[in-house]
Write a structure and sequence with these properties.
This protein has eight helices and nine strands. The chain has 228 residues and is an alpha/beta fold. The chain has a seven-stranded parallel beta sheet, covered by helices on one side. Strands 1-8 form a two-stranded parallel sheet. Helix 2 packs across helix 4. The longest helix has 19 residues. It is globular, with a radius of gyration of 16 Å.
Amino acid sequence: MTTLSRVAVREFDRRAIDEYGVPGVVLMENAGRNVADFIWTEGGGRPNPTVICCGPGNNGGDGFVIARHLDRRGADVRIMLFARPDALTGDAAAMYQIVSRARVPIVVAPADPSNTWLDEQPALDRPGFKVDALFGTGWQGPLRPPFDRIVEAINGRKFGTVVAVDIPSGLDCDTGEPLGPTVKAAHTVTFVAQKAGFTNPKAKEWLGEVHVVDIGAPRALLGQYGIR
């Protein structure tokens, strides 16, 4: 089984963009759409309530795409954005503009959301799906406040199936070790290939079932990494 390290993931994306000319926003669109397809299928092809917790980077950008595609299918989608919209950059900022203009409901968290504020968010208690789109494979080290509390809030709710986008936030991509508070997913929908740390038996507790989806990278590039 081919796996990708943190460095290899970054290199793969760069090469897809720079050498093969696939815009990053296209890769993000494909990634998010395929996660949305998974959630739709896992939910029995029904418009299940879904809350998507988005962070400040590209993982959050994936979350915006997921929200838009589920909303298009009639799902009751809510985005909880743990970043200032004007601080978003690049492809994530572009996807935020699209999903906000599509009028998908977005709750922008305060700069330092308290436990009380998180406890008062009814979307986290609904049945359906809770999507972790906080941080991706590039994150290193323990999650800093307030994201440690956000992860604990996600894990502490007894309703809803947790789906992690690419990797559970707080899990190290290379070692598969939790580096402090870590999202405990029922499903991890990861991009291109499994990550190096997923082979660590300890990671299973956080990953749940792992599903690999395509992001539209050229077959010639995939072949250079031994991916079919």
